[in-house]
Amino acid sequence: MRPRKPTHLHVIQGTLRKRHKDREHEPVGGPPIGDAPPEWPIPGKLIWAEIVDSIPAGVATKADRVIVEVVCRLVISMRTGKFNAALASQLRSCLGSLWA
User: What's the rounded Cα separation, in Å, for the pair 99 and 19?
Assistant: First the structure.
């Protein structure tokens, strides 16, 4: 069974209905995701910013930093030509977990 979509995502996406408003004990989002790791080179930081900017506001938190790092590394591989079907599948899976 697919987990319920959090109420705040219904608000962001404009799909909030009466049946969604009576949910109690929903987890509250954590601190913001923040900037790219400071030791990263400039191109990696630019891709981090691009990925984070494409995620709807309030969806990704500090808990998502590792998956965003994996996405950034996969995008770097894609853009440098070191990409194959297996990496494409991993990228798709990671992106799905961010925008689910």
Answer: 23
Report yes or no: 48 and 68 within 8 Å, Cβ to Cβ: yes
User: Mind listing the pLDDT tens digit for each residue in 31-52?
Assistant: 889 999 999 999 999 999 999 9
Q: 0.85 exceeded by the pTM?
A: no
Overall number of domains in the chain: 2
For residues 35 and 25, membership in a common domain is answered with no
d(CA 88, CA 66): 18
Question: For the residues 19-37, what does the mean pLDDT come to?
Answer: 79
Q: Which domain holds residue 21?
A: 1-29
For residue 14, count CB atoms less than 10 angstroms from its CB and return exposed for 0-12, middle for 13-18, buried for 19 or more. exposed
Q: 46 and 83: one domain?
A: yes
Sorted by sequence, the CB contacts under 8 Å of residue 50 that are 6+ apart come out as 75
Q: Are 56 and 88 in contact (CB under 8 A)?
A: no
Structure-block tokens of residue 58? 């309030």
